[in-house]
Design a protein that fits this description.
1 helix
């Protein structure tokens, strides 16, 4: 299990090749949450600039 970060007793892990969508797990003692990562290219300022110039 790749550990990305550990601070104040919270452990952040991200599993390679696990089910979609991309997400990470945060654990604190007996508690655990899963956080989905959602990326929208339409709201990305860099992508907006590139589409205006092309």
């Amino acid at each position: 299990m790749p550990e990305i970060s550990r601070f104040l007793g919270i452990v952040i892990r991200m599993y390679i090749r696990e089910h979609a969508p991309a997400h990470f797990h945060a654990e604190y003692g007996e508690y655990e949450i899963t956080v989905d990562i959602v990326i929208s290219l339409s709201s990305c300022p860099i992508m907006s600039l590139a589409s205006q110039q092309g």
